[in-house]
TrEMBL record:
Residues 1-59 form the HTH lysR-type domain. Keywords: DNA-binding, Transcription, Transcription regulation. Gene3D superfamilies: 3.40.190.290, Winged helix-like DNA-binding domain superfamily/Winged helix DNA-binding domain. InterPro entries: LysR-type_TF_proteobact-type, LysR_HTH_N, LysR_subst-bd, WH-like_DNA-bd_sf, WH_DNA-bd_sf. Transcriptional regulator of the ttuABCDE tartrate utilization operon. GO terms for molecular function: DNA binding; DNA-binding transcription factor activity. Belongs to the LysR transcriptional regulatory family. PANTHER family: HTH-TYPE TRANSCRIPTIONAL ACTIVATOR TTDR-RELATED, HTH-TYPE TRANSCRIPTIONAL REGULATOR. This is HTH-type transcriptional regulator TtuA.
Length: 303
């Protein structure tokens, strides 16, 4: 039973004093209105109307029900109005989680989106491990690598690009690895985002090679890894978002350019495609476009 529709029918019958008049107002048949009111009485286990051949009258319970029924119907109407307004206006808060490097990249580009939508707000949460989206109230989450949770909607929006890097001071002290086989003998700084902390995977464009490492330093945040490698602490795999500017000016060296780290898919996950609010769709579209603007993340470069 649609209890809101049944309450509307009951209120209209009470106002007009007639099932037939209520049916005309509600654009229903008289039997349909009668069934709705009877169903409501059955649901509440209470008679709301005295019926006779020539007249209708409210019972005491029916009179008491009118005020409560009006509150329910008015609340539903207000909710519908708010939803319709949101359907045409981008407003409200979107909670977005993403790894730190991509979070830095996105945060520099959010001003334009927020300027276009005065009622929109975005809460950025830098998080490297998967969230409980529903439990944590997360609208969208960017995850790197395969997504195994089949209960989530998943949209691939690009691919990572990373470099194996070291500070010049480290290379002067320990030498330059030439091939993946050389990496295992070096001091390694490991970003513990996910996966096996004891190996790194490199690709020459056709084949992938995994090498065993013994990390001297492990951090759960890529920015901390970036700081440590700049200080000469060892080799590290860094996102191009963090590494490119330092490579260009010589603060970091791109180690083994012929064997770059293997690329990972960039995925956006969210609980459901059904009835996705406009505020969330707007931020999702912004993420897709923002990633596509970086040539090192476009999907066409992926394997």
């Amino acid at each position: 039973m649609d209890i809101v529709s049944a309450l509307r029918a009951f209120l209209r019958v009470a106002e007009t004093g007639s099932f037939s008049a209520a049916a005309i107002d509600l654009d229903l048949t008289q039997p349909a209105v009668s069934r709705q009111v009877s169903a409501l009485e059955g649901h509440l286990n209470t008679r709301l109307l005295h019926r006779s051949t020539n007249a209708l009258a409210l019972t005491v319970e029916g009179e008491q029900m009118i005020a409560m029924a009006l509150k329910v119907v008015e609340a539903v109407d207000a909710l519908n109005e708010a939803t319709c307004a949101e359907a045409t206006t981008v407003s409200g808060r979107v909670r977005l989680t993403l790894p730190a490097p991509l979070g830095l990249y996105v945060s520099e580009r959010l001003a334009g989106l927020l300027d276009r939508h005065a009622g929109l707000s975005v809460e950025l949460i830098f998080r490297d491990e998967p969230s409980d989206l529903i439990g944590d109230g997360i609208d969208l989450e960017v995850r790197l690598g395969p997504v195994s949770d089949c209960n989530l909607m998943c949209r691939r929006i690009g691919w990572t690009t990373a470099f194996l890097v070291a500070a010049p001071s480290y290379v002067e002290r320990r030498g330059m690895p030439e091939t993946p086989d050389d990496v295992g003998g070096h001091d390694c700084i490991c970003y513990s985002r996910a996966g096996d902390l004891r190996s790194w995977t490199f690709s020459n464009g056709s084949d992938e090679t995994s090498v065993r490492i013994a990390p001297r330093l492990i951090a759960n945040n890529a920015v901390a890894v970036h700081r440590a490698v700049l200080a000469g602490g060892g080799l590290a795999v860094l996102s191009h978002i963090l590494a490119c500017a330092d490579i260009e000016v010589g603060r970091l060296i791109n180690v083994m350019p012929d064997f770059p780290p293997a690329r990972l898919p960039i995925n956006v996950v969210y609980p459901s495609r059904k009835n996705l609010p406009l505020r969330v769709r707007t931020v999702l579209d912004f993420l897709v476009q923002t990633v596509r603007e970086d040539p090192l993340m476009v999907s066409s470069l992926g394997p």
